[in-house]
Amino acid sequence: MPTSEEKNRPLLTLLCLALLSMLKAQGADDSDNTAEFNVLCRIVRQCQSGFAEPEPTPPAEVITLLTSIEKAFFLATATQAEFESNLTSNRLGLTKTDRMLPRSSGYKTLIEQMNNTLFYAKSFAEDATSSAKTASEEAKEANKKLNKALAGTEKKLSTDDDSPVYFEDTNLKETYGDSASNTKNCGGAGTATYSTATNTGTTLISDIMCLCIAGPDDGKKPCAGGVTTQAEGATIATASASTAKASWTALMKICPKDTGHATTTKLTADLATFRHSIGRQARRATSNQEHARYFLGYAANGNSGCTAANSQICVNYKPLLTGDSPNKIPWLSEIESAIKKWRWHQARKLRSQLSKG
User: Is the pTM value of this prediction over 0.85?
Assistant: First the structure.
């Protein structure tokens, strides 16, 4: 005779299956891509902040030092008439309390030593000025690359989340690439090739829209925060700038702003996390997981890929990363180039400081 436990086992099994089914359905709708979005969010904020651009002028301490040496040399070599003339013009910060150097014994040797000191001070100031200009230019070039990674243009665009300019007619081509569509920008089917997905990874903004917004127009929330998907034609293509703007504004409300400038340390860490996020959810695909290992975000069917259908809202990088001639993810390459340029500048700056020491 069956025990009470044995009698209830079929019922418990049905309940477990029902619960798993509910959880799976929920997973296909809400928050599936939140972790991936959080990584891209941090990278976006750093691109918007940019590296700190130093002034193209040497430090004030260098100018002060050079001026004091020039003043000492002038007081040691000027005539009385020159002293009075420069006192009137306030050149070198001369005041009535300053006194000319007496012409005593050893004067000639002292002047030679002061002249050498002045020569090296001027040389140091010139090097400092040149380094400051170079540093400023290199920072600007690095930031141009961050701008391009974000929105496809080296120009710094407004970062106002409430009035995003990325989706204006004048900026759409840079944001999404030529002839934007869900397939070209989000990667399409798991078996797609590069020729059909040439805009994949073109900008951070494009990838975020594929990951969080471009989907079935039925209220899915793959990146949480109450932000729902919209028909892909209204967000990826040029159908409705207002729809794309509203979606971006809502999405950025759950993307904390960076309080400081970008740093190579933070960017490098976030890029590493991004790389590890590609294919992170491949094991959840019910079929063709070999395709899904190139996806950013959740896809229930690896063969269907990232088509903006329900449970297929993602970015398929397979067309870029595989094939006879693999390509790099464009926005990722731009940031890597910016990091390399900034690190080269920092290393050169350090070498210069050590040589002066």
Answer: no
